[in-house]
Amino acid sequence: MATSSILDLGTKPTRSVAVSSVKELANLKSIPSSYVHPTMTNCEASDSRPDDGSIPIIDFSLLVSDDPDERSRMIEELGKACRNWGFFMVVNHGVGVDLMQAILDDCNEFFNLTTEEKLEFQGKHVLDPIRYGTSFNASVEKSYFWRDFLKAFVHPLFNFPNKPPGFSELANEYCSKIRRLTNELLKGISASLGLEPSYIAKALNLESSLQIFITNYYPPCPEPELAIGIAPHSDHGILTLLIQNGIGGLQIMHDGRWVEVNPISNSLLVNTGDHLEILSNGKYKSVLHRAVVNNKATRISLAVADGPSLDAIVSPAPELLDSEENLAKYRPMKYKEYLVAQQSNPISGKSALDRVRI
């Protein structure tokens, strides 16, 4: 059987086994030493607090309203959310509740396929259009994440597994709706920066935007205080829109502390990416976030990440560089090159973004 990595299953070096997914480890009484993560063995792990109700909420129906006052107010709120949080919840977004539930159910069905079936979609390179795997990049990591994933490039060309039946068709419908929603959010974000509503779409060639379908599987973990679903990081791209199966685990960094996200029912969770930070010249910063695990229930999340065209060269918008005190803070870089650099290395905070800072 093909495997993604050889993972140590105990403190003794002779106890090792080929593991293709963390799902295979969920019934252990303790986690393998290779899953003990350094970010969870210091005080940072306990320095979290529940959502206190202050996470911004964007009413999408008002953002696209015919009432200019309502629309203007929501654009202002959107700008505040991007500036102060890098994260917000979208309500009244028009994506059907039944569709959201159905796509999460199909994600669960995919992860419940046999190991052999899932390994048919095991990618070898970060730019492979379909890639099933475990952890983040097990080939370069010293500590592994308690996570299995499926990633598929769904725009400008739609690529997707052919199992389970109907999954591909449902994903195509869902991602098309998310792409339209994202484009409208970006019009509001452009306006909030003082730019033309279509500025981001034109500057980053969003007609050929890279859209990635990413579903994550976090099974119960016998020692959740030692493991992590995915370590603190920011996303490449512009915006990521996420839903989950009702099991919490997403935490975002705000004012130096981890905030647990408890989403409003049927809302979409949105976080800003590195390329919005670059384009806005740091006015809107990408948000650090992580996924913690629990010992009771499986968490499934679905993130749809929208980025520039792979060939787009992203740099700060010249219109925002209006004085000697406001010079460009980031070097231009082709999105494809940034994506490969980030995904090929161990995930670590904003290390990819740091490479293009001036």
Q: Determine the fraction of residues in helical runs and give it as a percent range.
A: 25-40%
Strand order of the largest sheet: 4-5-13-10-15-8-7-6
The DSSP helix count reads 9
Shape: globular
- Average pLDDT, rounded to a whole number, is 89
Description:
By secondary structure, the chain is α+β, with helices and mostly antiparallel strands. It has a single domain, classed as Sandwich (Jelly Rolls). Helices cover 26% and strands 23% of the residues. It has an eight-stranded mixed β-sheet. Strands 3-12-11-14-9 form a five-stranded mixed β-sheet, with no helix packed on it. The model is unreliable at 1-18 and 42-46 (pLDDT under 50).
Q: Strands, helices and their partners?
A:
Layout lengths: L4 E4 L7 E4 L28 E3 L6 E3 H4 L4 H17 L2 E5 L5 H15 L3 H5 L10 E5 L13 E8 L11 H26 L6 H5 L5 E10 L11 E4 L5 E6 L5 E5 L2 E4 L7 E5 L1 H6 L9 E3 L7 E11 L3 E2 L18 E2 H10 L6 H4 L4
Parallel strand pairs: 3-12, 4-5
Antiparallel strand pairs: 1-2, 5-13, 6-7, 7-8, 8-15, 9-14, 10-13, 10-15, 11-12, 11-14, 16-17
Helix pairs in contact: 2-5, 3-5
Short description:
This protein is of the alpha+beta class.
